[in-house]
Amino acid sequence: MVIYSLRQSPDGDWSIRRDSATLFSQLRLGPAIQLAREAARDEHTRSGRSTCVEMPGPSSTIRLAQYARPGMPIESAVA
């Protein structure tokens, strides 16, 4: 499972990360969510691998999008 994660900086901007690499930064929340979903969907389409988009919530991680091949079980993500 490839995980795209949203992270908020101390100044309130958002970044999109894949593993430990920051792909995009200094975004507002709405555009960050849209861009992360687009990147995850594109990777899934190109590679066929399961992908998801997550962001931190008040008490746990919130999964915002998930892409998997039909018939394949969804893997749980561990960050």
TrEMBL record:
<protein>
    <recommendedName>
        <fullName>DUF2188 domain-containing protein</fullName>
    </recommendedName>
</protein>
